């Protein structure tokens, strides 16, 4: 598989709350590529959806949620930083951004839980800094910042190529408490009757879910989805012959949480490749798990 | 009072996220018994309500929320367990469940906050285990796992016998962060204009709310309901002559939290018998408090 | 500026969940004063809005949210107190309230995190106590309990005098987890298409936001609003010539949180004067910051 698109996605500046660049990239990508897709989707965006984008294919039964935003840092006062989402923070990490005085490439400094930047000049209050992208690919692995969740977006765009019936929702704020999923869910449910969802996102390599053994189907994390829906998905996965792994966690969360708590009766399931070095500049995913993720999504969107 | 129905309810496997068995029991119970009730309710359920059930009697003004789900444990990797809700976890507790290899009765092992099962064979990943039911009844008390909230369900089914106008909503996920109340509230409010609620659930025996002195009316827990509604309920309770106790807590939560946070203007009040040994296999409730709970609900549903 | 109205507001008993007295004060104030305002608003309140009040001026594009409720304490059992919201609690603070036996003025007692009252007689279970108001004004500062958020309400009522198009929403429960904003947002969005909001509330004096240097525009707190909206507001503020300060925090929250999480696509921004001695009986705000707050709201409501 060609990962140029993924590399491009990983470099786009779009921390939670400022997903405009991702929105514009996706809108442009769809405009350029949708004519080659099996089904041309309706593209839904605009002020009523803030910076989100939805692609509606045919008569949708199931929605893919892929969040566009990333973790990062906001400049506070003096040289202080405040986290956006839950980034790993180690002294020496390279951060990039831009303020009124121009582009910034600086270094992160962690001291007893407090975060600072090292840069020759002061940076404007409120400036967002994100990890500098160092995209690495070998025969087996891809490693980069923001595999979470640009790989989830990549997956959705790959699935889009052959999708006949379904919705793909590119959302905002997932890394920082949410805010977009409820109104996306509202629209899908009220306009199209959609109440099944797949969360296209990246999970953790753990003792139970190693690299290279297939895409993870999460039976639960901090939240517990409806069991009958999970069982349906597992059954389809088993019949597909695609490698997958069952995940069971007590912590961690996703767009699924917001669907769970929304006033719409959504069934949801997190299905995604596992990564190592979570929320660091070095998120690492096995290529086989990416292949399985895309393959399983194609099957699920057909059969659910 | 005959507690056979309560005993049956306490034995039904329905941890948060998998309330199907409770749903089916209730649907069947209503089918068999509703003809003897004063008013035959409309039974509302199906995919738009996941595994929830609503009974609509006459022209409802007030809804009873009784959650069907219980706390429990999910099998993680190896012999590890992850909590469903907030169960008390002591080594030696008996747990039951079922996986692809058949029925399971095993033992809980708690070690420094980590949870494990003891069983001769490995248990399928994602299997749910719940407390084994040991239902005990004497002249004064009932003791069993899952009085919280099968007693709340029992109360609702007793109130159903004579209810003329009202809704009873049997909900899901209460023990594990919620997820059903918002869409149930939406339906009630939009379809029937209902915006008054009673939370039929079980609370704690404390220094201020002892066994045997009547049903507890909670003036607040972690959440604070609208005071004017609570005062209305207290006034009706005072006039009824039924034993009740006022509860004031800074912690604890219920379906009321989800009503409070929903985009519908619900007034809600937790009214329930207090129990000892909360969230353990030995939840203990005084029979007089159960009598008072049922009696007060009947009055409240008439007068609110 | 004359601060008599603010003084009156600071003395009104309206802890979270019991905002009736504030509601009635505002309804009466509007009835008496609206004839002198540039635009006479439609006054929206009643059971569908619990104890909230909305004023609709002309054709609204933007809503001001000003919460009416305050922090305080609930009497638990014996002489124990439970917090309403997050009040500062120091032994010796004067508290006032009323129960079935009459008015109460007592003293707070803090012992190792536990809270008690000192009063010659027992106080009814569930009674609410609030800080006794000691309103102090000098040339530069106002100091009193409940500047948060009676000053936010004061600001909204001042802005009302000349407002042509806009909504002012006086809400409930902000200090204690929320509950009103979602249905207020629902109404505004569905009925009037409003999806821009300003949070009229009081923030913290910090190393980055001192007294007397103008109203604070919060770029983020615990929640991160949409950046493009914040930038629009900053641009208008810059062009206005009114003193303002940019705030960046990782903690703290407001009505904005509930807008963020609601199923409506609201853009929101916290704009408010900073105070010292937060959540104590001695909240202190610089008069220049109050002037700037009112002035900036007038401009923003016109230009947004």
Automatic annotation (TrEMBL), chains A, B, C:
Protein name: Aminopeptidase
SUPFAM superfamilies: Zn-dependent exopeptidases (SSF53187)
PANTHER family assigned: AMINOPEPTIDASE (PTHR32481), AMINOPEPTIDASE YPDE-RELATED (PTHR32481:SF0)
Highest taxon, organism lineage: Bacteria
Pfam families xrefs: Peptidase_M42
Keyword annotations: Aminopeptidase, Hydrolase, Metal-binding, Protease
GO molecular function, one term: aminopeptidase activity
Keyword Repressor listed: no
Family stated for the protein in its record: Belongs to the peptidase M42 family.
GO biological process: proteolysis
């Amino acid at each position: 598989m060609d990962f140029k698109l993924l590399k491009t996605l990983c470099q786009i500046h779009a921390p939670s709350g400022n997903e405009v660049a991702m929105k514009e990239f996706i809108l442009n990508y769809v405009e350029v590529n949708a004519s080659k897709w099996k089904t041309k989707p309706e593209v839904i965006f605009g002020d009523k959806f803030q910076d989100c984008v939805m692609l509606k294919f045919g008569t949708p039964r199931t929605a893919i949620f892929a969040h566009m935003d990333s973790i990062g840092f906001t400049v506070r006062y003096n040289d202080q930083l405040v986290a956006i989402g839950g980034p790993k923070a180690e002294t020496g990490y390279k951060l990039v951004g831009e303020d009124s005085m121009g582009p910034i490439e600086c270094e992160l400094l962690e001291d007893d839980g407090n975060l600072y930047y090292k840069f020759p000049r002061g940076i404007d209050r409120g400036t967002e800094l994100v990890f500098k992208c160092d995209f690495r690919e070998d025969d087996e692995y891809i490693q980069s910042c923001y595999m979470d969740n640009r790989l989830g977006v990549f997956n959705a765009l790959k699935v889009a190529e052959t999708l006949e019936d379904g919705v793909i929702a590119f959302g905002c704020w997932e890394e920082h408490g949410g805010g977009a999923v409820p109104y996306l869910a509202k629209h899908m449910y009220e306009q199209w009757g959609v109440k099944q969802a797949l969360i296209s996102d990246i999970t953790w390599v753990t003792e139970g879910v190693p690299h290279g053994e297939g895409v993870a189907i999460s039976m639960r994390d901090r939240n517990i989805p409806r069991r009958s829906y999970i069982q349906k998905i597992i059954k389809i996965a088993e019949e597909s012959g695609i490698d997958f792994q069952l995940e069971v966690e007590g912590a961690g969360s996703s767009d699924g949480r917001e669907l769970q708590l929304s006033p719409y009766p959504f069934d949801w399931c997190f299905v995604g490749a596992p990564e190592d070095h979570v929320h660091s500049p070095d998120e690492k995913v096995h290529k086989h798990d990416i292949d399985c993720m895309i393959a399983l999504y194609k099957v699920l969107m057909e059969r659910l």
